[in-house]
Amino acid sequence: NAGVTQTPKFRVLKTGQSMTLLCAQDMNHEYMYWYRQDPGMGLRLIHYSVGEGTTAKGEVPDGYNVSRLKKQNFLLGLESAAPSQTSVYFCASKQDGYEQYFGPGTRLTVT
Amino acid sequence: TQLLEQSPQFLSIQEGENLTVYCNSSSVFSSLQWYRQEPGEGPVLLVTVVTGGEVKKLKRLTFQFGDARKDSSLHITAAQPGDTGLYLCAGEKLASGSRLTFGEGTQLTVNP
Predict the structure, then answer these.
(1) A49-83: pLDDT as tens digits
(2) How many whole angstroms separate alpha carbon B22 and alpha carbon A84?
(3) What angle do CA B71, B97, B85 make, to 5 degrees?
(4) Over the Cα atoms of chain A, what is R_g?
(5) Which of A30, A49, B19, B42 could form a disulfide with A68 if both were Cys (CB 3.0 to 4.6 A apart)?
(6) Rounded to 5 degrees, what angle do the CA atoms B37, B84, A43 make?
(7) Within 13 A of A43's CA, how many CA atoms are on the CB side?
(8) Beta-sheet pairing, A31-37 with A43-49
(9) B25 CA to chain A: closest CA distance, Å?
């Protein structure tokens, strides 16, 4: 039981490049979330999903897209990376009524 | 605009001291959670409080939810170096799709 895993752990992008972050959970959780964490800002919700095939916008969705084609996976895409998207990205999952479980994070630097 | 204001942002104390971290909001939450995060890892849940006025204890940690469910506090007694980390509060509102709103975090350093 691996819990929540994130791929990759680190990535450096140049401005304008695209990439996809993968989040996978093996707990059969319905809900999945993508956050970004910046110094002094706590965690801010980017997008979330309440079930397979569903997605919704969070607090800071601009510049990101997501997909949840399979229940266990939640993908976060950056179509044209900007330096403002330099951050640590966390994925989380939960079952209704229970706590969120977080992945180990992806550190992204955009130069 | 941060919905949850956490204070202080940084705290550096000596081993054995007591401390309190505050989490305040003008909004009502159905529940409030406290997380601890170590460098290079994701947050890990410490406790969830759901009832106004509720007090929960976890060894040397005491968590309180305000009567109006707008604020919370975390008190640590006789802090130890192992308590060092980033403490985050997070509130959940009813009918929010189980979304959490996080405070800015309190970076605690306990010096031996």
Answers:
(1) 999 999 999 999 999 999 999 999 999 999 999 99
(2) 29
(3) 50
(4) 13
(5) A49
(6) 25
(7) 29
(8) antiparallel
(9) 15
Residue listed under structure tokens 């959970």: A25
Angle at B25 between CA B48 and CA B75, to 5 degrees: 50
Most A CBs within 10 Å, among B98, B106, B107, to test the A interface: B98
Give me the residue from A45, A90, A99 closest to B99, CB to CB.
A45
Which residue has 């008190």 as its token pair? B75
- Read off the tokens for A79: 């179509």
C-beta separation of A34 from A66 below 8 A: yes
CA-nearest of A111, A98, A88, A105 to A23 is: A105
Question: What is d(CA B81, CA B13) in angstroms, rounded to the nearest whole number?
Answer: 10
Single-letter amino acid, residue A76? L
Q: What is the CA radius of gyration of chain B?
A: 13
The label of the residue with tokens 């010096």 reads B111
The answer to whether B39 faces chain A, any CB pair under 8 Å, is: no
| Amino acid A2: pLDDT | 77
Q: Which residue of A has its CA nearest to B100?
A: A45
Question: Mean pLDDT, to the nearest integer, of B76-103?
Answer: 91
Tokens of A30: 């319905």
Q: Which residue of A has its CA nearest to B43?
A: A102
